[in-house]
Amino acid sequence: MLIPFLIMLREGLEAALVVGIIATYLHQTQRQAWMPAVWIGIFLAVALALLVGAGLQFASAEFPQRQQELFEAVVGLLAVGMLTWMVVDAPRRHRYETRADVGARSRLQRRQPHLGADRHGLPGRGA
Hints:
mainly alpha, 3 helices, 0% strand, extended
């Protein structure tokens, strides 16, 4: 029972760190109006996690031992598949978003050439 507790504690701390970073960003960019949406997201995530956990617990409790092991294996494989897809998909998304960001910056610099960086990556006159 100690090992699952430590894993859940670590995951909870990671989630709190991410929420803290988002809250700090919203505060520093004067977007405190979005904080209620952050709290709603937190409560919905906790409720969904509890519901899914309870549903999986009740579903697996009904199975005989052999089927329960198969059920756990399938759920584990689904989790591995989702994480693998996220790792494989992240670089592709980053390339796409980076191209979009560069395109938006270059369009802005064509309209306002005194902003941003010059062709060598150094700050321009207005930066």
